[in-house]
Amino acid sequence: MPWNRLGTTTLSSTGSPITVSGFDASTFIQELHHGIAYGSYGSSLRLNNDSGTKYANRRRTNGTNENSGTNRTFIENVYGGDTLMISFMGDIDGEEKMIINLGGFSGSSGAGNAPNRLQLIGKYVPSPTARITQVNRFDSEGGAHGIDTNLTVLGSDVTLSALATNVQVGSRYEETDTRKIYFRIDSDYVTDKWFEAGTVPYAGGRGVFGGGLNTSSSAEDTIDYITIATTGNATDFGNLSQARYGLGAMANKTRTLFAGGSTGGGGNQTTIDFITPATLGNATDFGDISNDTTKTYGVMCLSSETRGIIGGGESGYSNRIDYVTIASAGNSTTFGTLDDGKQGATTSDGTRGVFMGGEGRTPTMDYITIASTGNATDFGDLRVTLYGGSHGLATDGTIGVFTTGDSYSANVEKITIQTTGNSTNFGNMSTGRSNLGLASDKTRAIFAGGKTASGSNYTNTIEYSAIPTPSGNAADFGDLQVARQVLAGASDTGADRS
């Protein structure tokens, strides 16, 4: 039978009583008690802080001198020095609560004096429907419990919700009656963190890449994914509801949205669709972009855990900013305007979103507070030209990084998101390229796909770099399923997922 720790208390100052309370009733209860003597000390037991005449016990000290007591206000245990006790209690609703107690007390100090032992059987007779939800140890001899006195209570009726607060992440629990094994995992995606072996749920950590323009100059509906913390090739996730390129992506822990883009011959699209990163499958319709509906190629997207933001786009550069509530499907709503019309890159920490000017526009950056609405405010300027930069977010929650794409450069820039100012150099990819997709967790930036030179020189390369301090050029991660550019990247586990 497994035991679950229901609670524990250690005194940091002298006093009486010492209590463990507020736990759920359990069929069997085990009490562990180490009492430190302070003054004329004796440690006795009460349950539910009940001082009525509801206790009876029979006790023997050192194998002799048995005595009994009835209609008592407590279970009399030990006195005379420090105490060490273990008690077992049966708690069936409507029945008297039987107690077996074994323990002892130190007696006179020094190894020349033997300690004293106690054997006790007792019972607690509350109202018929009462259960034990509190254990109290109090001094019955006029002294007090000393510093470091401890009381710990265990229960036999193990529940996963109770276990979750009492043991370390990574612990394993085996239920010997059923031979089931449970693990405690650390996941922001669930509230009950104990899971039976073989049923551990998805716990985040994916980067997804949707759409793009392939080497045949055709729009892709491909969605593929990686596990950001490892390396390896991307795996098929499903398909967009509509093949397109030059789209944007925004995400929270449970949904990733893909917005806008162009189908090529079909022109710019207002489509917003979504996936659930935990579950592989095709994208589902979410709604449409409502404003500047002919200027959705190259939209710049970012998000908080609640809102997705859609800014800019072309042709005929837009200064629109719209927003959606990620948990609720529907069309976008007006947020405000950018400082000018543009298509470029974005970054965010989940509170502030920053838009970087791009193709054909001024090298400005401006920012918004995601939870509010209103026009964007000047942030600073780009250190280098941004042309065909990145689509997606890479951030550790403090700095945001983005590629510039100018002349198929390998350059990666950074800003400190909560501090306005100009961009500075972050590092370099190993291969220069433009129009790639970004994703990140809290420690890694991912650079996926893009175009390496003029013409149809599209790549399937995925690289990664440490955030906030890269160790040299970006390192090889693996490959996308399809070589493509102007794809959108997002993650369900980044530092902007607050």
Blueprint (SSEs and pairs):
Elements: E1 4-10, E2 18-21, E3 28-35, E4 37-38, E5 42-47, E6 55-61, E7 64-72, E8 75-79, E9 83-90, E10 97-105, E11 116-124, E12 134-139, E13 144-145, E14 150-155, H1 160-163, E15 172-175, E16 180-184, E17 194-196, E18 206-210, E19 213-214, E20 222-227, E21 235-239, E22 248-251, E23 256-259, E24 271-275, E25 284-288, E26 300-303, E27 307-311, E28 320-325, E29 333-337, E30 345-348, E31 352-356, E32 364-369, E33 377-381, E34 391-392, E35 399-403, E36 411-416, E37 424-428, E38 437-440, E39 444-448, E40 461-466, E41 475-479, E42 484-485, E43 488-491
Parallel strand pairs: 34-38
Antiparallel strand pairs: 1-14, 2-12, 3-9, 3-14, 4-13, 5-8, 5-12, 6-7, 6-11, 9-10, 10-11, 15-16, 16-17, 18-20, 18-43, 19-42, 20-21, 22-23, 23-24, 24-25, 26-27, 27-28, 28-29, 30-31, 31-32, 32-33, 35-36, 36-37, 38-39, 39-40, 40-41
Descriptive account of the structure:
- The chain has 498 residues and is mainly β.
- The chain folds into two domains: 154 residues, Jelly Rolls; 286 residues, Kelch-type beta propeller (Neuraminidase, 6 Propeller), CATH 2.120.10.
- It is built from one helix and 43 strands.
- The strands form eleven sheets. The chain has an eight-stranded antiparallel beta sheet with strand order 1-14-3-9-10-11-6-7, with no helix packed on it. It has a five-stranded mixed beta sheet with strand order 34-38-39-40-41, with no helix packed on it. A four-stranded antiparallel beta sheet has the order 2-12-5-8, with no helix packed on it.
- It is elongated.
